[in-house]
Amino acid sequence: MNYKLIGATAVRVLAQLRRDPRSIAMILVLPALLLTAVYFLFENEKLPPGAPRSFDRIGLIMLAVFPFVVMFLVTSITMLRERTSGTLERLMTTPIHKADLVLGYAVAFSVMAALQSVVATGIAYWCFGLNVAGSAGLVVLLAVLNAILGVSLGLLCSAFARTEFQAVQFMPLVVIPQLLLCGLFVARDQMNEVLQGLARVMPLSYSVEALGEVARHSSMTDLLWADLLILAAIVVAMLLLSSLTLQRKRS
């Protein structure tokens, strides 16, 4: 592992993103706009005195879901463009290792993911008064981790796509099943055994479970620690697989 090459790759990718205002807007602005839409969906709900708002529960989960989906799309499409344009092919003729290249991309997109999560979480707290038991720091940490999860999954899926259209086609295959089975619509323990088994191998399930712990508890719990470790392990595993599946030649 060469940290100089990883850093140089990350700087190059960030410089490219800086020249692409549409991608920057999609990364930084889109999740905040979607979160705003969720807030106004529940703006006029009538609640008995002292009852928690629906936005406090759903908005908290959306702070993980929206960055995950957006970073998956941006990362997979950007990485595919790098390969189809011949950039990766030229880079692979240099002494840089595949792992250094993948980590460089991961670092660059993780920086954007962190900015995205801070913006969205700040709006949720300061503009919409998000109220949960856990601290804002924990919410930001989980939002960033989920965005990085989207980055790692996007890097992995981009290796199996030949065109940008094929990269987008991974959405219904990889992302939508996770949204359906993560516990957002139906609690996992209320699903049948087959769906529960599928949910256990889907990273977003652990994200939603961790956010549920943040919503209910003001301090770290054993379940929250376990979910964080599982998510971190999944990210590392996906980055490793991404380096192993990285193609040298253009598709």
From TrEMBL:
**Gene Ontology molecular-function annotations:** ABC-type transporter activity
Any single GO CC term annotated in Swiss-Prot or TrEMBL for this entry:
ATP-binding cassette (ABC) transporter complex
Keywords noted in UniProt: Antibiotic resistance, Cell membrane, Membrane, Transmembrane, Transmembrane helix, Transport
| Primary localization class, coarse | membrane
- The protein, known as: Transport permease protein
Cross-referenced InterPro entries, in alphabetical order?
ABC-2_transporter_component, ABC2_TM, ABC2_TM_bact-type, ABC_2_transport
Q: How does it sit in the membrane?
A: Multi-pass membrane protein
Residue ranges of domain ABC transmembrane type-2 in the record: 22-249
In the UniProt record, does the keyword Transmembrane occur? Answer: yes
Q: Which family does it belong to?
A: Belongs to the ABC-2 integral membrane protein family.
Q: Where in the cell is it found?
A: Cell membrane
Q: Which PANTHER family match?
A: MEMBRANE COMPONENT OF ABC TRANSPORTER YHHJ-RELATED, TRANSPORT PERMEASE PROTEIN
Q: Which Pfam families match?
A: ABC2_membrane
> Known PROSITE patterns for this protein?
ABC_TM2
* Membrane-spanning parts: 24-42, 58-80, 101-126, 132-156, 168-187, 223-246
| Single biological process term from Gene Ontology | response to antibiotic
Q: Does the keyword Transcription apply?
A: no
